[in-house]
Amino acid sequence: DLTENPLTAVPRASFRGFTHLQSLAVPPALECPGGSDAWQDVTVDRSSRLCQGQRNPCNSSEQLAWPCPENSVCAPDGPGLVQCLCGGPFHGYRCLREGTFPMLLFGGILGTATVSLSLLLWGTQRRKAKSP
């Protein structure tokens, strides 16, 4: 129930991840998060706007406003929000890379860079340390 909050607008991503939200009351001047199409029933009275029954935008018969890439599946991510999850062996930006994520290569490069930078900083700052 957000009716007593002095909200002037609800940021679009405020309810990201709220996939099981089924009832929400907002001040009557505000729209329901995701718009009226994201809810099965929107009721307005004097003190509140009641949004009930969050719809799954992935199961919509209308054309999706958020097309997922070919190698991904649609998953709801809150009122009127979706996320595209890479399927099968695909990963990366827009699920265009096939295979597994190169964890060993990534970890090796990150570890080498971290150790090198640490040794460089230790070597340059060691002479500034006070001796007992």
Automatic annotation (TrEMBL):
Transmembrane segments: 101-122
PROSITE patterns, per database record: EGF_1, EGF_2
Signal peptide: none
Swiss-Prot/TrEMBL keywords: Membrane, Transmembrane, Transmembrane helix
GO biological process, one term: positive regulation of osteoblast differentiation
Keyword Transmembrane: yes
Ranges of residues in domain EGF-like: 84-95
Superkingdom of origin: Eukaryota
Protein name in the entry: ARAID factor
Taxonomic placement: Eukaryota, Metazoa, Chordata, Craniata, Vertebrata
